[in-house]
Design goal:
This protein is mainly α. Helices cover 49% and strands 7% of the residues.
Length: 225
């Protein structure tokens, strides 16, 4: 089953953004180098809920800005709400921020979602996973991306928690692939690139666990000896 997941992810990667390498270059042996390359292009952010900006490691890449994260899921100042799959209640956000940061949201707020915003009705997203949606919102608000080598800022942890997502859930393989699928669909290329090494590392971890775990057949044979 793990090897099937690995093949599936490799196929997905070939359909991702133009900045991606071919699937043939992905392997568990080069996971560390890929992660290092990806993380070096992300911003080095210190953990602080009041922290506003951090320097970007790569020219042309917008710096991480945590100053707006505190306004996520505040119904007093947010202008739109969403109901992704798995959410127990509506999640509030600013349609202006989302529209400025994402061509997808900009187009939706000008057409299909106009009435929902005007009438303050939750926008239902039954095919969007809650954790993936929360990561997308946090990313669009701040340019933050998950990384194996850097500490998640407190402002990001707090924003995710207010949306009903615990940081530990981002270690789950299914959550990571859901985040990847949604980020690819919304053309969030920075987030797509950051998720690649995390998914590959998760697959490698699963493969190691399968190799080290005794099989039910070997256990059964031992018990009959």
């Amino acid at each position: 089953m793990v090897f099937k997941y690995y093949s599936t992810v490799k196929v997905r990667f070939t359909k991702a953004s133009r900045a991606w390498k071919p699937a043939s270059s992905l392997s568990t042996t080069n996971t560390a180098s890929q992660a290092a390359t990806t993380c070096s292009s992300a911003s080095d952010v210190k953990s602080s809920s009041n922290e506003s900006t951090a320097d970007s490691a790569s020219p042309g890449v917008p710096a991480v800005d945590l100053s707006l994260l505190g306004s996520i899921h505040d119904p007093d100042i947010c202008s739109v709400s969403f109901l992704p799959s798995g959410a127990s209640s509506a999640i509030f956000a600013s349609h202006t921020i989302l529209a400025v940061r994402s061509p997808f949201f900009s187009a939706k707020f000008r057409r299909e979602w106009v009435a929902s915003v005007a009438n303050h009705e939750p926008i239902k997203l039954p095919t969007w996973d809650l954790a993936a949606f929360a990561v997308i919102v946090a990313h669009l608000y701040s340019r933050w991306v998950p990384s194996e080598s850097s500490t998640v800022p407190d402002a990001v942890k707090s924003a995710l928690a207010r949306m009903g997502v615990q940081l530990s859930s981002l270690e789950d393989f299914d959550v990571l692939t859901n985040c990847f699928d949604l980020a690819e669909y919304l053309e969030c290329t920075e987030l797509v690139s950051a998720l690649e090494p995390l998914i590959v590392a998760s697959i490698a971890k699963r493969v190691r666990a399968v190799k080290l775990a005794p099989t039910k057949f070997s256990s059964s044979a031992t018990s009959h000896q």
